[in-house]
Amino acid sequence: MNDDLRTFTIKVANFQVPVTLGFYYTGWVLALAKPANANSSNPLEHGAIVTTLNVLGAEQSFPPPDPETGRPAFYMMTDSENRGMLPQLEAQGILKKIKPKDRRKGTLVEVLLKDTEIAHTCMKCVKETAPILQETPFELPGEPRLRRCSKCSIVRYCDAECLQADLTSHRTSCHIWHDRPHEAARLMENQRRADLSIYLAAQGFQTIAGTGGERRQDGRLLNGCLVAFIPILLAICLVWLGSALWV
């Protein structure tokens, strides 16, 4: 059971909500520490994810764990919806700021929790819900823990069915998750962005491909690459779908 899962309370605007620190392989979130309720008077309880912590964008990087402690690190978004969040998380011993803010990458923070205190999610399920991460279920207090790969000790699955469905894919990346989890996360994020471009195209949004100047349908040049526009495209798509998720 999830008796070791660390739960704590955070405040956003005038609302308070119980959360856990959630890890979804390519990023970190504050996950709701109870089942989501779309009818709740607290808007923070409408989805499984209260807020996304890590920076999403073209400059996103995946720093390796601390060589001495083995603690994972990531670049945290501290502006916009996350303004004032880091001091709350530091005060409760969840995260620790280890470098000043980099405009391109965010604030580098270190995770202070043990692996057993972190809420994980199923690898197969997170791949299926990657375009709309808000629907991704995380481990909850009082419920059985997910099954963990015995070789890499990082990837989790809901059950044997999810494991079997993702087995072929995980066999090719298991050793990378074991030896260089930050590199495995980078590769997975690249695939997620490729899948997202397909998802957006299916919803009727025109995406930008390539790394150089690309031409629009009207013939004018567009500079930049797809990954630089993914947060914007995703936000537009989610508004169109009526979702409350932001990135």
UniProtKB/TrEMBL annotation:
Stored Gene3D superfamilies: 6.10.140.2220
Protein name: MYND-type domain-containing protein
Molecular function via GO: zinc ion binding
Stretches assigned to the MYND-type domain: 122-174
Keywords: Membrane, Metal-binding, Transmembrane, Transmembrane helix, Zinc, Zinc-finger
Ranges that cross the membrane: 221-246
Domain of life the protein comes from: Eukaryota
Pfam families registered for this protein in UniProt: zf-MYND (PF01753)
SUPFAM superfamilies the record matches: HIT/MYND zinc finger-like (SSF144232)
Entry keyword annotation includes Transmembrane: yes
PROSITE patterns per UniProt: ZF_MYND_2
